Every structure is written in structure tokens, then in C-alpha cells.
Amino acid sequence: MIFGLGRLFYVILLLINAVAVLSEERFLRRIGLGRSSNEQPVFGQEGNTTKSKVIQLIGAIQTLLRIPLIGINILVIGYELLLG
Amino acid sequence: MSYNPYAYASGNNGAPEVHDRATKVSGGAVPPPAQPFQGNPIQPQFQNQYAQQQPQAQGQQAFGFQDPRNTMAFQIGQSAFSNFIGQENFNQFQQTVSKATGDSSTLSHYFQVSTSYVLLKLKQILIPFVNKKNWQRIPDNGPSSDSAGSAANSGPTFQFLPPKDDVNCPDLYIPIMGLVTYILIWNTQQGLAGSFNPENLYYKLSSILAFMGLDLFILKLGLYLLVNTTSPVTSLTELTCFVGYKFVPLTLALFVPGKPLYLPLMVKSYLFVAFGTFLLRSVKFNLFSGPSDDMSHFPELTVKKCNYFLFLYGFVWQTILMWLMG
Predict the structure, then answer these.
(1) Transmembrane ranges (chain B) (predicted)?
(2) Which residues of B touch A7 (CB under 8 A)?
(3) Has residue B192 been placed in a domain?
(4) Which domain holds residue A69?
(5) Closest to B213 (Cβ–Cβ): which among A2, A8, A53?
(6) Tens digit of pLDDT for each residue in B118-162?
(7) Lowest mean pLDDT among B59-63, B102-106, B145-149
(8) pTM across the whole model
(9) Which of A5, A11, A48 lies at the smallest CB-CB distance from B206?
């Protein structure tokens, strides 16, 4: 089974897109991964448990990558349309 | 990195020499070359240039003619840059760059191997059950001048012995050699079977790199989510080492004749189990022995979760991967 670097790039792009569209208020709070449920009395919000790390990771991906993802998605869509 | 990582000038001790891997430092371990560079912009200019002219006067041409020139050119560039930006900003800039590129140490550390190390490491990968001694890496106490110079830098510290002194340390030489060997042997076998195509070399390389990328992604994500540790084992370079070790059993699995059906199955399953054990043991025992370890006892839950994850990863996922790749 040979899948190359191009496919891997598409897979990772789709996964990151999936994480970026998770809506905070409509979905994450319902399943308990909302930001308000992550209460750490430590200043600076250091997460030590897995759940708080997941919450931080999702938050970080959404904040950082929402805008560049728009650009990368446009590029990939253009590439797929024009060059098959 | 724009400088030569193999040579640096230390004006810290007041004994100006150009250090290189050719010089034998009496401590037995090569001090990390990255740290004196971070201390250099603080020193006044004349001391650097004095340090540069000394080796030429001492006639230490054994280092090669280029080294003092390179280091002097670098010093000039560095001083111009730091005069432009400001010296504290330059330090911060260097630290940010080194943190962004994610190296817990310079790459040359992972290539300092010796023949006996390679043989012992190969034995460890293939027969991990024999070695009942501890699998911990030996921390390295650098000379005191380095720690005084590096106390002001909160950059990545690096405290384990290089591979040629310590068998438990991961290296990058074996994975890279294993990768090239594996690709060549795979294509040779295809050629012997009559279906060789020079493009296949590249297809195989791309496929292997994709698998390794996926592997690294999963491993890094898992270790980040489960374990809160600052040990250098979880840095990306070291994880590349561990991921790359699987080319050794893969290459050996290619040599097995496929005719009697039970033979490749037995050999492959033994190799995969051995590799899983090796991976599990070497990662597990080094995860919690970071350089700044105040708590001697981590919460039980993280240790258990870490064990489960590593077990699942080491045996199940690696077997799947190696089956797909082989």
C-alpha cells in the first residue's frame, strides 16, 4: 500500500480542518470540552490532565490556524480544480 | 543555523582556543556547542577578536584553514546584527529561533557514534531481552564554566551523554542508514523479480517518509497529551530517532525467503515483538528522568496511562505499520 507525502498532506489538512470547525458554544460545551469547564486555580492556566490539555490544544489550533487554513484551503481547492 | 556547529571559540575561561571535535576535552564529554555562542554577544568585542587571532598564531592548522575564518566572519556578522538590533534582543531572538526550530540540542550530538556503539545498539534492537541492566541514559555534568555561562540563558539545556559514550542514547545515524539500506534492498529485490523501475526508488522513499511522518505525528500527540514532562526524550529529534529504528527489523525481514509460509511469519512476528519491547523499554525509562526532576513520584494515573499508550503504540501500531511497509 503506497501512499505518498501528498496524500499525507491532504489527510493532515482535512484533520486540522475538522478540528478548526468544532464550534465552542454549540458542540464542545455539550460534550464537556468547553473552555469554562476547564477550571484551574493555577495562574496561567497550566493544564496537567489529559482533558485540559485537549481543551488547550483545540483552543490553540482554532485561534492560530483558522485564518491560515482559509488560505491553504483556497490553494488546495484551486489546485484540485485546475490540475485534477 | 548559519554557523559551523563543530567549532566555537570560548572566551569565557580566559584561555582563548578554538574548540573543535578534534580537541580532547578533559571531561570526556563534548560540551554542547550551542551554549557558548549565546554567551558571546555579551562579551566585549576585543576579546572575541583576540580569541580568533590566537589560534592562527599558535599554528593550530590541524583544524583546517577555514575554521578561524568562518568563526571570525560569524563574529563580525553577529556583532553587526547585534549592533543593529541590540544585544538583549539578539539573545532573545536566538532563543526564539532555537525554540521554534524545536531542537533540544544540536543535531551533531546525535551523529557522534562509534563502531562499538553501533554494534551494541543493533544487538539491543534485535535482542532486547538479554539486556537486563537499566536502560537509563547517563546524565552529563558539563564543566562549571559552561554552567556559569549558560545560567543566564533559559535556552534548551542538554545533559545526556552523546551516543559514543552511552549505549542507551538514541542516535540518528542508524535510522538514516537503515532508511537508505531498506530502500535499496527493496528495490534490488524488485529488480531481481524483474519489475524494477527507477521511479520506484522515489515512490518508495515518499511512501516511507509519509509513514514516518504519520508515526511521528501520532507519537508526539500521544506523548504531549498524556505526559507532562520536560525531558528531552519527547523532543521531535529524539522521536525521529525512535521512529527510525524500525528500519533495522524491516531490513532484516526483507531477507527472509517467502516460500515456506510459516517461516516469514515466525521471523517477522519475532522481529516485531523484539522491536516493540525495545521501543517500549527505551522510551519508558527515560520519560520520567528529566534533568530537573523534583517530584520523585509521579501520580499513578499518568504513569498507568502512559504505559497503556506506549504499549498500544509500541506493539499494535508498529506492527501494523511494519506490515504495511514490508
Answers:
(1) 172-189, 201-227, 233-257, 269-288, 308-325
(2) 210
(3) yes
(4) 5-34+47-83
(5) A8
(6) 888 887 777 777 665 555 665 555 443 333 333 332 233 455 666
(7) B145-149
(8) 0.61
(9) A5
Domain count, chain B: 1
CA dihedral B108, B113, B118, B122 (to 10 degrees): -30
pLDDT for the residue numbered B165: 67
CB A67, CB A11: distance < 8 Å: no
Q: Identify how many contiguous H helices and E strands chain A contains and give both numbers.
A: 2, 0
Q: Which of B101, B98, B105, B147 is nearest to B233 (CA)?
A: B105
Say if the Cβ atoms of A50 and B305 lie within 8 Å: yes
Taking CB atoms and an 8 Å cutoff, what residues of chain A touch B209? Answer: 5
DSSP string, B157-217: ---BPPTTT-TTS--SHHHHHHHHHHHHHHHHHHHHTT---HHHHHHHHHHHHHHHHHHHH
Among A3, A7, A8, A54, pick the best mutation site for testing chain B contact (most B Cβ within 10 A): A8
Looking at the predicted structure, is the pLDDT value of residue A66 above 50?
Answer: yes
Asked if ipTM goes beyond 0.90, one says no
Most confident of the ranges B100-114, B203-217, B254-268, B296-310: B203-217
| pLDDT higher than 60, residue B113 | yes
Chain A partners of B210 at a C-beta cutoff of 8 Å? 3-5, 7-8
pLDDT at A58 over 70: yes
Query: Is residue A63 assigned to a domain?
Result: yes
Whether the CB of B323 is below 8 Å from some CB of chain A: the reply is: no
Please report whether residue A25 resides in a domain.
yes
Residue B233's DSSP bridge partners are none
**Residues in chain B closer than 8 A to A8 (CB atoms):** 210, 213-214
- Residue numbers of the domain that contains B121: 117-325
Return d(Cα B238, Cα B247) in angstroms, integer. 16
Would you say residue A75 lies in a domain? Answer: yes
Spell out the alpha helix ranges (H) of chain B. 34-39, 45-58, 66-85, 87-100, 115-126, 144-150, 173-192, 198-226, 236-244, 247-254, 262-287, 300-311, 318-325
> What is the band of A72 on the pLDDT scale with cuts at 50, 70, 90?
very high
